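Dissemination and training. As part of the outreach component of the grant, students in the summer workshop were shown how a complex can be specified as a set of sequence lines and then modelled as a single object. The example used during the hands-on session is reproduced here so that future cohorts can follow it. Participants entered these lines:
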Amino acid sequence: MTTDSIGFGHVDLGTDPLAQTPPTHDVVGGGAFGGDARPCASYTLRVNGFERPVTDAWIGESLLYVLRERLGLAGAKDGCEQGECGACSVQVDGQLVAGCLVPAALASDSEIATVEGLSAGGTASDVQQALADSGAVQCGYCTPGMAMAVHDLLQRNHRPSEVEARQALCGNLCRCTGYRGALAAVQVVAEARGAVDELPEQEEPEQADPPEAAAPSAVPVAVPVQSAADLSLAGEMPLYADSEAWVEAEQPHPAQPTAAGTGIGVGIDAVADYGVDYGDGQGVGHGVGHGGAATTHQTGVYEPADYPPYPATPPYNGTPPYDGTPYDASYDATFEQSRYEATPAHGTAHDGPPFEGTPAHGTPYTQTPAHGTPYDSAAYENATYETATYETSTYETSTYENPSYDNSTVYEHTGYDGSTPAHGIPLPEDDHA
Amino acid sequence: MLPASLDEAVEALAATPGAVPVAGATDLMEAVNAGRLRPAALIGLGRITELRGWRYEDGGTAVLGAGLTHARMDRPDFAALIPALADAARTAGPPQVRNVGTLGGNVATAAPAGDTLPVLAALEATATLARAGSTREVPVSHLLTGLDPLRPGELLTWVRVPLLNAPQVFLKATGRSGPARATASVALVLDPARRAVRCAVGAVAPVPLRPLEAETWVAGCIDWDARGEDGATVIDPAAAAAFGEYVAGACVPEVLPDGTNEGLAQGAARVRRTVSVLARRALGRALK
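and obtained this result:
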């Protein structure tokens, strides 16, 4: 965006020893400039309440990159690397920031809260659940950032208005569903939390927030170094955890949605509710007419009496033993060898055809004719249509001419000057506008 | 490196010549992610709490810390002091960027579309630059134009802004209704004590532009004595419209189409019209 902040000091781009060399040549490190070209640092990040050591990381690595590639927390997504899309939103010291725009080395003594910390114990937090329930998730790429933005908004503002919610989410781009679902989720969570607060006899709602997010500047207490066995407590889905820890983390919650808040588990819940209500209200008598639809729901509650019992699925016996069938090598020949090697390293230039680039601002383009321009009717005049099934073989195609329409006057398009006020702020009455 | 005080930061900057001071890092990391910048070392300024607030000085001046974030400037207590700066901070970007982006970083980066820059130019702010053992005061406009740039080892610490107690307006034209880079922006500040209008146009040139002749002309058109009375007409609407044209003509050079530069001429005409409308509206809102 247009804001700023390279620091308050002098940045001499001209004397940068690497400014003259293409930056893609020395991605691997070292290069011709030794240690100075790629200064590294080791530090410890406090992520979701756990100390996570990072060793020998280049100081220019963003917090997003370190979280995803070094710590295995792939919840925050890498969208634009410019702070435009909000898919990488995380909280640093209780403030919502774009993870791609934070140098990880400078966040070493900050409290970092990621979307993995929202879902304590492997269950989706109320924000994530509401996002899934209200249809704000389609491809899911923006969802972790959206969940963090909604979470951050509701931490600061317990009853956000529609405009406040829109302003809070204006930095999270979603190209699938639009924002209606996310805005509805904000209101759902705000009302649910408000309803719980109004009943003092009830216990506190099960806040999925990590404790440090509620008290961002808490005095650092002795925090255990995270081990693989702790991962199920943190609700994190480690990418690179060894297989033992993975099984441990998975077993207690086999059917829960992932930390990123996909709607899979939620969809099953909703169907289950529907099936129960349907069975109670409609009864067995309607079972013949609606049984086909009802049994497709995986509820196990409603079974019409008219139908024979569903045959039990034989238990799964595992993969059958190898029966000695020879390996048919002709299968391999039918597959084309994939030329995909690996994701190139961070910052490597891609080797596709060169991007021509968006044309420069102000480049003329062939204009679409203005609305109401009389179309070139020469091609259609006196055209003969094939109408073999009709008795008259040709139609009279007279061109429409409105005698009152004077197309000699040229409409001067004054243009939209684009001076909209800030997002969500109603336009004030302006005598001089 | 995370110095906790200004002195430590200045010493660290003197000790490591290639180090980049980092405040909000929103522009720095964009350049680093794109491979345009490879810092030799980073000096984080986020822990210097003295730079994250502001104080008052005699003579009606506010001294703003360079570490003031846009989110902080948007808050009502600050907006009561310098409304135009608060407006500029509010529209500067999404919350994720405004939470970390700082005033000092905006000045030091001096991006053409920096939103606080036309406001600082219209307010005729001055900046304090600190280096090990000494400080100096430079007008922000001199910093931006490169007349008196930041030298190696210097750190922008404070921005001195006059408190005018008068209407101030910042208007910005963007490509979408959400926060976005400005295609043109206008900051207009009334100075009733000196019976002056100060205006700056941002994002149409590498630095904010001041249409000085248009300012003096329109200051003569305003009925300053009628200001503040209910129902008083302080300026003729035609004069306000003429002011808009005057500002646009002063800031955006006219490009006459000669067959080869049609796109350029169209773009210039569009920007002129935008600036003209913004300036007219800014004057109207300031005088209301």
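The first helix of chain B runs from residue 6 to 15. Students were then asked to discuss how this feature might be tested experimentally.
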